[in-house]
Amino acid sequence: MRILSWHVHGAWSTAFVRGAHDHLIPVTPDRGPDGRGRPTTYEWPERAREVTPEELRESPVDVVLLQRPHEIELCERWTGLRPGRDVPAVYVEHNAPQGRIAEMRHPMADRDDLTLVHVTHFNALFWDAGGTPVRVVEHGIPDPGHRYTGEIPHACVVVNEPVRRGRVTGTDLLPRLNGEVHIDLFGIDSEPLGGQGDVPHGRLLTEMARRRVYLHPVRWTSLGLSLLEAMHLGMPVVALATTEVTDAVPEECGVVSNRIDVLRDALSAFARDPDRARRAGDAAREAALARFGLERFLADWDTLLQEVVR
Predict the structure, then answer these.
(1) pLDDT in tens, 201-210
(2) Fold that domain 152-291 belongs to in CATH
(3) Model-level pTM greater than 0.90?
(4) Which of 135, 141, 189, 293 is the residue whose CA sits 20 to 30 A from 16?
(5) CB-based contacts of 32, cutoff 8 Å, min separation 6
């Protein structure tokens, strides 16, 4: 199957392109938001190939995977095909809705020409899709392996753009959580907060696994892939009890709470007790492999794509 999709969410796409299909990834000379092409910080297979807008006119497409509303117009302009009419289409919504609960209407609501796919059941519950067909395909990630050493008795946080997204991602909570345990921050544009910035994905995973515990302070967003990566690595988790986290992180994998004092005490307890941290991390890895493995993710997508294309 030939799938047209834009490089929007690097971590999610890294799992999606691992399947048995051919992927057409738009690229433009400036490699801007609508033409990033292949990433430099993730490893993608050769079946995910870059195509220019001009080449797309001559490239057969079996299905279009949309992730932003304006990609509908881009697809029609670059390929001459109308998503959902001339070519089958699915729309992947990566984010939790923003705003008042009564106003959380999805841009693709009340469409019968495409399928809206959410990455968590929480998102599907909160977005109002009207009459649009809705499916949930939970995250799956390539297994990075059990790398946990916990040799550095610090907590690790991975957040992109923590200044701009401060309250959403909970980075404003870090000074309150940074008690006995030092918190190391990684992510794009994290330098203003003393973070270590954007690092190659392979190195990031190694650095995460050296820390004693993974901290997930996010208030309101989809289930973070960095959280799932931490669990795959074998890291214990301390997290806010928000969105999908309470369902995704079993009790034996760490501590999930909305009380700052409970979270701060949990960080200290894991920092002081490496054996306890390792036991929780082992449980986290087992839970992540069982629910968020790559094979299940790709199989779910194969089933959905076959239903859409036939």
Answers:
(1) 889 999 999 9
(2) Rossmann fold (3.40.50)
(3) yes
(4) 189
(5) none
